[in-house]
């Protein structure tokens, strides 16, 4: 089997595993959402530290103030969960952390901010604070700091710190930011990181757009992904399924994969590329045993505005 087909299979497997993680999360949310159902509120403001999942069932503004914090240990669902399509403004100026270990049958997932729907045009996700997520388990561990289960037609702005770490005896997956299709904008001037470590296989992605990107993705900060496992380790700074929009980088994007088996690292990985890439920053990748490309472009024929030193495959 040729390398391009193998890479496509890897991307498909990551997508399937993330869908599985989301299904596990939905099951854990069932009773929690029922308990926290309430009459519609005009807005939700967290101005003091809380130690339980913040569940939002309405399309309203949500603010984590600088004095506020959501710190959840062994969560049933994560830090903040927003149910349904979202056209309001979510703003985090404080701290969100979710730490989960153990899990039923050795399967454990943790999320920082989970939006179970689309971020509609006009909807805004603003992160000026910190979001830190850690999942530890004996079999499967999955950690995602910002997880939009649907499409991002609005905007996501990050000037803070977003980190996800997954550690497992068998399979570990970590994602800094995840969304479906991107027709809006995703902007990073802060730091986004993902780290996965396991006893068999590990996958880490800093920013993952699983579907079609027709909007804008801009990095002026730092995006990093590291994966370590003895059998298979895959790390991608930015991973996009179908790139038709514009990507611009003036910051730093790194990916590192290590292990005795197969390890692959990509600063940028675009499965299909018919958009525009502009890079005047730094993009790099390193791997012990496998592919290590700063920029990997699959099928398509997009436009490249790169530095002369950028490595493209």
How big is the Rg?
A: 18 Å
* Through-space gap between termini: 18 Å
Estimated structural class: mainly beta
Mean pLDDT: 86
* Fraction in beta strands: over 45%
Order of helices and strands: HEEEEEEEEEEEEEEEEEEEEEEEEEEEE
Largest sheet: 10 strands, parallel
Query: Which descriptor suits the 3D outline?
Result: globular
- Percent of residues in helices comes to 10-25%
Number of discrete helical segments: 1
Low-confidence stretches: 1-6, 26-39
User: Count of DSSP E strands?
Assistant: 28
Strand order of the largest sheet: 1-4-7-10-13-16-19-22-25-28
Provide a quick synopsis of the model:
The protein is mainly β and 313 residues long. It contains 1 helix and 28 strands.
Helices and strands in order:
Layout: H1 3-36, E1 43-46, E2 49-50, E3 54-56, E4 61-64, E5 69-73, E6 80-83, E7 89-92, E8 95-101, E9 107-116, E10 124-127, E11 130-137, E12 140-148, E13 155-158, E14 161-168, E15 171-179, E16 185-188, E17 191-198, E18 201-213, E19 216-219, E20 222-228, E21 232-243, E22 246-249, E23 252-258, E24 262-273, E25 276-279, E26 282-287, E27 292-299, E28 303-305
Parallel strand pairs: 1-4, 2-5, 3-6, 4-7, 5-8, 6-9, 7-10, 8-11, 9-12, 10-13, 11-14, 12-15, 13-16, 14-17, 15-18, 16-19, 17-20, 18-21, 19-22, 20-23, 21-24, 22-25, 23-26, 24-27, 25-28
Describe the model:
- The chain is mainly beta and 313 residues long.
- The chain has one helix spanning 3-36, and strands spanning 43-46, 49-50, 54-56, 61-64, 69-73, 80-83, 89-92, 95-101, 107-116, 124-127, 130-137, 140-148, 155-158, 161-168, 171-179, 185-188, 191-198, 201-213, 216-219, 222-228, 232-243, 246-249, 252-258, 262-273, 276-279, 282-287, 292-299, 303-305.
- The model is unreliable at 1-6 and 26-39 (pLDDT under 50).
């Amino acid at each position: 089997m040729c390398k391009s087909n193998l890479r496509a299979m890897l991307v498909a497997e990551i997508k399937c595993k993330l869908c599985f993680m989301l299904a596990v999360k939905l099951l854990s949310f069932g009773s929690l959402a029922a308990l926290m159902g309430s009459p519609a509120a005009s807005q939700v403001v967290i101005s003091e530290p809380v130690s339980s999942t913040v569940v939002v069932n309405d399309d309203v503004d949500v603010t984590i103030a600088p004095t506020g914090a959501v710190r959840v240990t062994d969560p049933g669902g994560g830090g903040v969960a927003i149910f349904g399509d979202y056209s309001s403004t979510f703003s985090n100026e404080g701290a969100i952390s979710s730490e989960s270990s153990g899990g039923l049958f050795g399967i454990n997932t943790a999320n920082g901010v989970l939006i179970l729907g689309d971020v509609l045009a006009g909807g805004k996700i603003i992160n000026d604070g910190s979001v830190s997520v850690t999942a530890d388990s004996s079999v499967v561990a999955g950690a995602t700091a910002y997880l939009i289960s649907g499409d991002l037609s609005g905007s996501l702005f990050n000037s803070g710190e977003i980190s996800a770490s997954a550690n497992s005896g068998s399979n570990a997956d970590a994602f800094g930011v995840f969304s479906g299709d991107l027709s809006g904008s995703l902007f990073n001037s802060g730091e986004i990181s993902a780290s996965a470590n396991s006893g068999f296989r590990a996958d880490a992605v800093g920013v993952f757009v699983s579907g079609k990107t027709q909007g804008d993705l801009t990095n002026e900060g730092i995006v990093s992904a590291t994966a370590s496992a003895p059998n298979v380790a895959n790390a991608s700074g930015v991973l996009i399924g179908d790139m038709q929009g514009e990507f611009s980088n003036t910051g730093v994007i790194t990916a590192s994969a290590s292990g005795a088996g197969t390890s692959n690292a990509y600063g940028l990985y675009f499965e299909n590329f018919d958009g525009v890439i502009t890079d005047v920053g730094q993009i790099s990748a390193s791997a012990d045993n496998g592919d290590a490309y700063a920029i990997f472009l699959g099928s398509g024929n997009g436009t490249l505005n790169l530095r002369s030193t950028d490595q493209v495959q």
